[in-house]
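Severity: low
Component: inverse-folding endpoint
Summary: output formatting inconsistent between runs
Steps to reproduce: submit the following structure tokens with default settings.
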């Protein structure tokens, strides 16, 4: 489903974020990418959803070379990818419902399907009672759930999560991890970047450990 073939990424011809990285992720797999700050974890996620392109090598997602996807085709390509950021990136002048509605309208979801998808997704995450709240009215853990809901509402095949427990407390972190386990059990491929190296062992999932842009453990 996802393949990195000798991928290197150099920023501004100076800083090497990734160096000859190769790995495959099968459909329905749960992969943790671990490593210290600056190791290249976020760069891998950005290469998968096409925010960045490799300097050398190939990134293949669902049999498509991401480098060959035209800019105007990227929104269509990203329909099957849900992205969850550490800093949430919610629209703070819109309610929870409106944040999810914005995503669905952007990908051309039919008007009569939008409400059903939003309510179903928020109910699944135990957040439907917060649908009319604004992000500033929510705790960090609740905001992270909304960020997850925004990714899930598209029914994507692939979920990319960048340090999703980095800005929330331990109790909320456990709940968020359980949500990702459930998402994976329902068939989605999950790739999570985290500096918590113990998580893969606790969940008994595959771990890709990166140091200075190179895979040192898989």
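Observed output (run 2 of 3):
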């Amino acid at each position: 489903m996802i393949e990195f073939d000798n991928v290197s990424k150099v920023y501004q011809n100076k800083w090497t974020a990734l160096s000859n990285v190769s790995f495959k992720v099968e459909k329905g797999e749960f992969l943790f990418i671990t490593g210290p700050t600056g190791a290249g974890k976020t760069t891998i996620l950005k290469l998968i959803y096409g925010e960045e392109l490799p300097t050398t090598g190939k990134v293949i997602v669902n049999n498509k070379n991401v480098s060959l996807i035209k800019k105007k085709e990227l929104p269509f390509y990203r329909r099957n990818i849900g992205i969850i950021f550490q800093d949430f990136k919610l629209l703070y002048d819109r309610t929870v419902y409106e944040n999810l509605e914005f995503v669905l309208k952007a990908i051309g979801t039919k008007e009569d399907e939008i409400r059903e998808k939003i309510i179903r997704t928020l109910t699944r995450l135990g957040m439907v009672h917060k649908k009319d709240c604004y992000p500033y009215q929510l705790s960090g853990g609740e905001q992270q759930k909304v960020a997850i809901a925004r990714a899930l509402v598209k029914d994507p095949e692939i979920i990319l999560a960048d340090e999703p427990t980095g800005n929330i407390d331990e109790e909320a972190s456990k709940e968020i991890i359980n949500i990702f386990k459930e998402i994976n059990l329902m068939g989605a491929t999950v790739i999570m970047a985290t500096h918590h190296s113990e998580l893969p062992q606790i969940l008994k999932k595959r771990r890709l450990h990166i140091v200075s842009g190179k895979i040192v453990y898989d």
